[in-house]
Amino acid sequence: MKRAICLGEILIDCFAERPGVPRSEVTRWLPLPGGAPANVACAISKLGDRADFVGAVGSDHWGDALMQLLTDMGVGHRGVQRRLKAPTRQVLYTTSQTDSLSSALGHSHHTFAGFSESDPTVFADAHLFADGLEDDLFIGADFLVLGTVAMAYSDTRQSVEKALSLAKANQLSILVDVNWQPMFWPNPAEAPGRVYDLLKQVHYLKVSDDEAEWLFGTHSPQAIAQQFPHLKGVLVMAEAQGCTYCFRQISGHVPEFKVDVEEITGAGDAFTAGFIHRLMQKGPGCLKDANIVREIVTYASAVGALTTTRPGAIAALPSPKEVEVFLYLN
């Protein structure tokens, strides 16, 4: 069985239960587990591979709940550090007057309203300590999955650097999903330089078309690959249009599957997990075959699409059988 390590944030997303009111007037919040790397780990596990999550949570009831979630999802959590003096991050979102709560959970239907503390650096996920990373966790693993939020904080950034070193020493493939979220950054102007430095050390890049334009001045995966010639693959996601990709000399486009959308939160993370799962199954040598590359991206797109058909980024994750049936019917 293949194994991926996902490093980064795990947190609580809190959605206002009453639409159309400012944060100061919200009386009840709906808490749901979140954090892109954690979502990816849960999805990889659900698809049948092994996944380990590496991150930090507070020694509080939210931290306990997230640890239990990882256990319930079959995700290894020996790499999770508990912080006594730093709380588990809560991210607050308000919804518009016209949105129902279920639709408000979708990425394009809610508005960031702040964190549970005003300083984004005080939370546990900002303080993942490099000396707490276990070297042997990387032995025998196949993939390291990273976002860019971890690069916003000194402690966690040092952990990323150590993880990259361990991944290289153990010959892991490395993927970065940009997942740009400026509110996490104390100084967002520092982000492009740090992201560029990170991309110089990885093999695969997943990015939205908007993120690609911001970072690279283009949303063409071929043009991005020319800027980073060491990359083995670039995946560019465009909302409602699907995925355009470039794997060295192989490029193509997989359109978005048409499904009845309940909620889009976590769909991109599910796509990432589907891509990694299928690539680990096939092996990196398969990327020389255009048909197999397209099949891998199509599989990932199916995992992402199915995740939108039910509420809850993690609760909605499909099983391998559901993906198989969906692809057969589509």
Instruction: Name the overall outline.
Output: globular
Based on DSSP secondary structure assignment, what is the total number of beta strands? 13
* Content of β-strand: 15-25%
Q: Give the CATH class.
A: Alpha Beta
The number of helical segments is 10
Judged by helices, strands and strand pairing, the structural class is alpha/beta
Tally the structural domains: 1
Q: Nearest-angstrom radius of gyration?
A: 19 Å
Largest sheet: 9 strands, mixed
Unreliable residue stretches: 99-108
CATH topology: UDP-N-acetylmuramoyl-L-alanine:D-glutamate ligase
User: What is the level-2 CATH architecture name?
Assistant: 3-Layer(aba) Sandwich
Keywords:
330 residues; globular; UDP-N-acetylmuramoyl-L-alanine:D-glutamate ligase; four-stranded mixed sheet; alpha/beta; nine-stranded mixed sheet; 10 helices
Description:
This protein is α/β, with parallel strands linked by helices and 330 residues long. The protein has a single domain, classed as 3-Layer(aba) Sandwich (UDP-N-acetylmuramoyl-L-alanine:D-glutamate ligase). It contains ten helices and 13 strands. The chain has helices at residues 36-46, 61-72, 101-104, 154-169, 191-199, 209-216, 221-227, 267-282, 290-307, 320-329; strands spanning 3-7, 11-16, 29-34, 50-58, 76-83, 90-95, 110-115, 143-146, 173-177, 204-208, 233-238, 242-247, 250-254. The strands form two sheets. The protein has a nine-stranded mixed β-sheet with strand order 5-4-1-8-9-10-11-12-13, sandwiched between helices. A four-stranded mixed β-sheet has the order 3-2-6-7. α9 (290-307) crosses α10. The longest helix has 18 residues, at 290-307. The radius of gyration is 19 Å and the shape is globular. The two termini are 28 Å apart. The model is unreliable at 99-108 (pLDDT under 50).
